[in-house]
Predict the 3D structure of the following.
Amino acid sequence: MNALNIPSFSCIREGFGGETKIIGGYMATEEISARTAVDLSVRLMNNENIGMPKIRDLEKEYILDWKRFSAYNTNDIRMVPKNTRIINYPFYDHYRKELYLLAILFVISFIFISISLLRMRRRSMIERRNIKMLEETHKRLTHSADGGQIALWNIQGNIIEFDDSYTRLTGLQQRHFSIADFSKFAYPDDLRILNALYKELCQSTDTQIRRVRLCFNENEKDYQWYELRCRSLEDAKGEMMLAGIMQNIQEVVEREYQLIVAKQMAEKAELKQSFLNNISHEIRTPLNAIVGFTNILAGEDSDEISPDEKANMLEIINHNNEPLLKLINDMVEISHLDAGYMDFEIKRWNMTEIVKEIYTTYQPLVQPSLQFNLHLDETLDLPVDIDRQRFIQVISNFLNNANKFTKAGYITLGCKVIKEQNEVCIYVEDSGKGIEEKELIMIFDRFYKSDEFGQGSGLGLSISKVIIEKLSGHIEVHSEVGKGSCFAAFLSLT
């Protein structure tokens, strides 16, 4: 009680919550009294026969006034029994842990937001700097494109779009086209190049370079050369797009053509000089023998020459007639090839049979000291569309060279199939002296001979190269000095 001036408890609620300094007690609170009265009223309203109400104790509960309780420096909530209801419990004391946790979360959130804002500010500064650099780069690129007659373009879906330089380059205001509409500007023969370029870009990420003729003036039809440099890449959304540059190279092509013409004129002059030098040497040597022995046989003292000596002289004359006749035939043949006068009788042949025939024919001509091998699967049927005689001429030339420059070892004539390219390879391999690497790029030049004083016109390989190219094939050479060489002709299988 108030008179004792010490913490006290009460079993009744009179004075509780006032200035009586009652800390708490086991009592019926106002809530319990109100709830009991309401229950009784409800029963009466429902016309229940409750009779005379009996006097009974109300329900009670343990109540603690925290305001009075905390005045005695006892703030530990753990000292209060669990089944006690606390009134006047301050918000701070009630949610102390939650407030501490909230404060900690606030501090962490503040730090996180501050770091995020700093990073965003730094990223924003970097982006502004990058944008400025991009603007400078774009400005320089624009100036370069203007000076170099270059237009930038990209293709997304079926639409091709050009930058502002396109208008200055072509004079057209329209900068958006469908691929089909843009193809109308191309020279008819170059349409397949554009179509093939589009397919390759869709299949590969490598940079592609093509030259095509375009005309953007429908009235004049003045086609000019343009170079397209392009590749495929992904945009910001991850979708594939094609981008590149288009540059007018008409002046470059014209200068290239002038250089080609000048080079051809120089080559013709050099070829003429080489022709004269080689012909004078190749013709003079056999003619000297022919003329010399002919004069002896037709001279006044011819009667004094024995029949054996005459026969020997005639044999020398005939021997020198052969290289002279071959030289003239080679010169006539290569001139016909250059002029396009030589006809090719293209028919379908079985390469297996042709190679076997060449081996059988040439077998007696190989030096006795050499081993002549044939590498051929005779069960294969290898159809090719070629001129049979011209092809045999090429392989015979390979065999003649191998026989000439191989002193010991072997010569191999072989045939194999290259399935990946659908080609057949016919090769002649030897164990001869080989060819130096610096000479490999010159052996197909006309009149070129590794041995200047050796026999031959220097036209055989040049003629062979032209013949194989006329047959839509190509020749490859592999050689190593001291180990031998391998000449191979590649032709497409039918």
